[in-house]
Fold this sequence. Notes:
Layout: E1 17-21, H1 26-37, E2 41-46, H2 49-57, E3 63-67, H3 75-87, E4 92-95, H4 110-138, E5 141-145, H5 158-178, E6 184-190, H6 197-200, H7 205-217, H8 227-238, E7 249-252
Parallel strand pairs: 1-2, 1-4, 2-3, 4-5, 5-6, 6-7
Helix pairs in contact: 1-8, 3-4, 4-5
Amino acid sequence: MKNPHPAIGTGTATPRVVLVTGAGTGIGRATAHAFAAEGAHVVAVGRRTAPLAQTAARDASRITPLALDITAPDGPGTAVRTALELHGRIDVLVNNAAIVTTESLRTYTRASMESLLATNLYAPVLLTQAALPALEDSRGVVVNVTTSVAQRAWPGDSLYAAGKAALEVLTRSWAVELAPRGIRVAAVAPGAVETPIGEHAGRTPEQLAAIRAWQLDHTPLGRLGRPEEVAWAITRLASPQASFVTGVILPVDGGAVVA
């Protein structure tokens, strides 16, 4: 019988292997660091080589950077094969990579919608699909990173929120579908967190300031979150001690969802 409690990744136990997407900056980088600090081997996936190198620099013995586009036809398969070639197993998959845009209902085009959903929705589906055999072997965990605005109105880039809401439905559905195979699935829903995702979308300083002001007005704790706080939640949901937790969407948002 397969062990239902994967190794924690410390001491004499077999180190866990964690695949993290969007690991070049922000929440992905903090998550890679958090798992490495626990003793796991981390395959840090992202599009850009330089930020990934900075992620890996903290612990090159534990973090392997892998520059690729997960929206490419061979992206998910390459990421999974690389992790297996390096470490022989995958215990945790963190679907974190996401993009936002400066568009809205008035300006969306089919091409811009496909680009957004390719990263935020299709890639997590295809990557999880590619990793299923390895996750079944390890009785592993999938942690999806969604957003607290998936549970409320998000005027402006509504398709971003819609894609993340779809990922939350997939989280619950996969949790039920994959439970008989020993795989747990959960999600973390960050609120306003200090990451460069807005800058990557090309938003101006004035636009970013307006968004931050709105977010702070709707965050009861009155501050922005830190990537490390979201990474903590991801590692806790993925931990062996959470072996009876599946299908949950955990807000890490300073109370924004309940306000």
